[in-house]
Amino acid sequence: MDNYCAALRSIGAEPLAGYCPAPNPNCGGLLLCGGGDIEPVRYGQPDRGSQPPDLARDKAELELFQVFHRAGKPILGICRGMQLINVALGGTLIQDLPQEQKAFHCGGKADMVHPLRALEGSVLHRLYGPVFSVNSSHHQAVDALGKGLRAVAWAESGFAEAIDCPGLPLLGVQFHPERMAFGRHRLDTVDGAALFSWFLGVCQGDVSAFSEMPGLFSDKA
Hints:
Blueprint: H1 2-10, E1 30-32, H2 55-70, E2 75-78, H3 80-88, E3 93-94, H4 99-102, E4 112-118, H5 123-128, E5 131-136, E6 141-142, E7 150-155, E8 160-164, E9 170-173, H6 193-203, H7 207-211, H8 214-217
Parallel strand pairs: 1-2, 2-9
Antiparallel strand pairs: 3-6, 4-5, 4-7, 7-8, 8-9
């Protein structure tokens, strides 16, 4: 949690962090952080390699998502947060990546690094270009997409590593920008600060952030 709060404060935001918080309508947006696996029953599957879930967190964050989503407020999901967005909208997850893929995405205590390919016109394409390197630390991935979602970045192994919902201020990324920004900036990845700055701009109703990101906020993508 500390890394997320530090990144947000570094761009001038005021995070209201907490474990299983109730929705606060005064917040300008919702950041869904990384963490453990979501209970598979939430997306209609038996356990196929998931780690033990935090049931209270699953329930609280799904409720948070629904409140902010219905209100049309900006939502940024990171790692688990991206997966939760997908599950909340009816999608499913790959519960445990095959070993040949996991080797490129989950390296124990240290983050792995690999390239992503971004959809032209998407937020990530506009921030970082068509191909860029990110960190990686996950053994699960988005599988079938939830209602209204589209994939906007992919790993070489083929599964989606970023999703959005055209017409809504919603973005999910599988990587960890909070570990690629400010005091944790690294030379072998892009700068995660750009993504946090974009999110703050959207939360503040920045007109330029909307007009420069038509793939995320309009049907003109």
